[in-house]
Amino acid sequence: MKIRSGGNDYEGLSYVSMVPYIVVDMFDFRLVDVNIEEETTWVGAGATLGKVYYAIANKSGIHAYPAGVCPTVGAGGYITGGGYGNLIRKYGLTMDNLVDATIVDVNGMVPDRATMGEELFWALRGGGEEGLYKMMVEFQTPQLTFDPYGGLMDKINSNGTPIPNREGNLFKLQYVTNWDESENQRSKYYIDLTRKLHAYMTPFVSNNPREAFLNYRDID
Questions:
Q1: What is the total count of domains within the chain?
Q2: Do 220 and 207 share a structural domain?
Q3: Which residues constitute the domain of residue 217?
Q4: Residue 34 maps to which CATH number?
C-alpha cells in the first residue's frame, strides 16, 4: 500500500513498487484552518504547500510557514519527511514546528498526540530506528536529515561532474544544530553533541550499499 499526499517525491515512491500495490490518495484531505490568534494552523495531509501559504497570507501579512519553495508538494509527505526549506536557520524544519497531529491507525482509531504516544509522534516527524531515536531524545537539539540519492545519480560517471559522490550512495546526511544562548555561551556544548551524533552514525555509513543496508538493519 502506497500513501500519496501531493505526489512530489525525489524517488517517486508513491508510483513504483516491486510487487502489486494500491495507492491511498490523500488529495481530498485539503483543509487549511488558520488561527492567527494562537499562531497555529491545522493542515490536511493532501493540502499543498502553496495552499497553506495562500491561506496564511489571506489572514496575515507578517506570518510565515517554515516549509519549502515548491507549491505543489503535499503537506502530508512533506511534514512526515522532516520539512526542509529556506527558513530553517531562523525557524528550524517544518517538523520542529509541529505541535499536534491526528491520524487514523491500523485499527481504525483516530488518536491525537495526547493518546498516540511520543514514539509515534516522533515517527510522524520523520523518525526511525530505536537506538538513534533514544540518542535524539537525549540530545534534543541536533537534527539529522536524510536526502535520498540513487536513480540518475547512480548512472552519471563520478568523474564526469564536479559532484563525485554518486553511485552506491543511498543518502546524503545533514547534521544541523541551532541554539539561542546569547554570545554563544554554550557553543562548545552543542558542537560536541553534534560530533557525538556524527560519531554514532559513522559505523552505519558505507560506500557499499549492501553493507550500509545491513548496518542500518542491525541498529539496536
A1: 2
A2: yes
A3: 129-220
A4: 3.30.465.10
Same-domain pairing of 82 and 23? yes
Q: For the purposes of burial, counting CB atoms within 10 Å of the CB of 1, is it exposed (0-12), middle (13-18) or buried (19 or more)?
A: exposed
| Sequence-ordered strand ranges (E) for 76-189 | 143-148, 171-176
pTM strictly above 0.70? no
Domain boundary, last residue among 75, 96, 127: 127
What backbone phi and psi angles, to 5 degrees, belong to 123? Answer: -65, -35
Instruction: Give, for all 220 residues of the chain, the pLDDT tens digit.
Output: 888 888 777 667 777 777 888 898 998 999 999 999 999 999 999 999 999 999 999 999 999 898 988 899 999 988 888 888 888 888 888 888 999 999 888 888 898 888 988 888 888 887 657 577 777 777 788 878 777 766 666 776 666 666 666 666 777 788 888 887 766 667 888 888 888 888 887 777 755 544 444 444 443 3
